[in-house]
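Protein: Lipoprotein
Species: Actinoplanes ianthinogenes
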Amino acid sequence: MLRRAIQSGVAVVAVAAVTLGCAAPEYTYVKNSDEKTYFKVPHDWAETDADDIDNALSGTNPDSATAALRRQHSWSVAYDAASIPNGLHLLSYDATDQPIVYARVTQLTEREQNAVSLDNLRNSVLPVTAAAREAANDPQLSDFELLSDEVLTPTDGTHGVRVVYDYSVTGVMHTFDLTALVNNTGDRLYMLLIRCSTSCYRERGEQLNAIATSFTVRSK
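Structure follows.
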């Protein structure tokens, strides 16, 4: 059984397994054909507004001209496993006991292109490198642990990193799984971020790794 839904210019395709009839699909397949970006999430996760995440990560006022320009030159989507989905679960200082995933494709300005490095990709959401953690000095983040750090060259046209790390967020340990890529011309950033409490990440590690490794970018 094949089901298609078109929302915000993004094609979402769910493929159901057939066992003595039509069973519920296991995954929702998210595709942005224009940006040649693909990944999957469990079918029962709900899509939620990503605009608040975009504004928080970019540090812009949602009503500003800068924010309007960013929306013209980027695409983002978020899916939340919580019973009451909310995109801000990704960035909250509260405990996040259900996983949330956020994906973004951004056209980089010339200034941003000149600043791109593997360390900048590692630090694109939270401070990961020692220098970035020292500079940030955020009292609500502590007990940093780097779980894995892999340099990626998934295609001839893209390169980047996948870093998995823990932070204690106001006393509760959380795991962040970040894949950040740029194309070889340096004008596009592709990001996939998964977050949940560390206990949640351990319990659902196989599922969350399947999401992270499904993230596919075909360089333009």
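Remarks: The chain has a mean pLDDT of 85.
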